[in-house]
Design goal:
327 residues; alpha/beta; eight-stranded mixed sheet; two-stranded antiparallel ribbon
Length: 327
């Protein structure tokens, strides 16, 4: 997550058509008899209903790779540095092997070349796109494993889970890893600004995951689009974990360029430099009076700076939302 944003947006998100699933039509052959579903439709309903439980070990393995890349490249994965391009190459190789169509989008920021990575899963209605993304760059002072290896690893593992399941939702699935977020949302803004009005309108929802494994975590949900927000809240209600509205990062991550052009957005966050209150510690655990992430934008943001429970819950919540909203 970038440290500050000049001209922070205060615009209200444009209302969005509710993403509804198709009801199963049944007929009854006799009064009081159980309905007899069409077998093909029933099978499709079952297939689409089951979001995967992402293996935490897989998500952490991606973080280990990103840490190794940073260590081998001056200790960071920042925009314009070799560690960023190596991070992108790692993610791209995984996606290519899994059957995605990948595209590298190039831009320039601070006199350095930057890159976005876009991955499309074949199939689905391309007039209804569900998109999940995260920024892949770190700051220059550290490896950026929570900020934002955590979101990047989760989005990658969700994409790989789509491939493993050979998931064929009604809507089209697209995943993205943004460059130069730490310089002011440069990569995501470049992407959005270069979309035609028609292609912007085809995005039914953009889900953003930035810092989802903070070591002293909170459970924050973006309150932008009501349907997306409720999807995340429903997941956490099922776990019995209370959530709060996300305010610390409002307008400070890659959902903002999408929101500013009317795309419905949502996402998850576990906190950065803000301090956890006593009330928050009482309901979530952790330590009150300390930052959610004491290593935010620091050299100590390494693989040791991750709360496994938060990472696991948020990765699964993200997968749940991708499945639910793409049906």
């Amino acid at each position: 997550m970038k440290l500050s944003v000049p001209g922070r947006t205060t615009a209200t998100a444009v209302a969005v058509t509710v993403l509804a699933t198709t009801a199963l039509l049944t007929t009854s052959t006799a009064a009081g008899a159980a309905p007899a579903p069409d077998s093909a439709t029933s099978a499709r309903s079952v297939k689409l209903a089951a979001a995967p439980d992402l293996p935490l070990a897989n998500v952490k393995a991606h973080l280990t790779q990103l840490q190794s890349i940073a260590t081998a490249n001056g200790g960071n994965r920042a925009h314009g540095r070799t560690g960023y391009r190596a991070s992108l190459d790692y993610v791209k190789a995984k996606l290519d092997a899994a059957g995605f169509t990948t595209t590298i989008q190039q831009f320039t920021a601070s006199s350095r070349t930057g890159y976005n990575l876009i991955a499309d899963w074949p199939g689905g209605d391309t007039n209804q796109v569900i998109m999940a993304g995260s920024h892949l760059d770190s700051v220059s002072s550290g490896a950026g494993i929570n900020d934002n290896g955590s979101g990047s690893a989760a989005v990658l593992e969700i994409a790989l889970a789509v491939s493993r399941a050979q998931y064929q939702p009604t809507k089209h699935l697209r995943f993205a890893w943004w460059g130069a977020e730490e310089l002011g949302l440069v990569g995501s803004r470049y992407h959005v600004n270069n979309l035609s009005a028609a292609n912007r309108a085809r995005i039914s929802g953009y889900l953003n995951f930035d810092m989802i494994g903070s070591p002293n975590p909170g459970y924050f949900v973006y309150d932008d689009d009501p349907t997306i927000e409720q999807t995340f809240k429903d997941y956490y209600a099922g776990l019995g974990v209370p959530t709060e509205i996300e305010t610390e990062g409002d307008g400070r991550s890659d959902h903002a360029p999408f929101k500013n052009v009317g795309v419905p957005v949502g996402g998850l966050f576990t906190g950065a430099s803000n301090t956890k209150s006593a009330a928050q510690a009482a309901k979530w655990g952790g330590t009150s009076g300390q930052a959610f992430d004491r290593c935010y934008h620091s050299s100590c943001d390494t693989t040791a700076n991750i709360n496994d429970t938060a990472l696991d819950r948020n990765s699964d919540a993200a997968a749940y939302a991708v499945w639910e909203l793409s049906e």
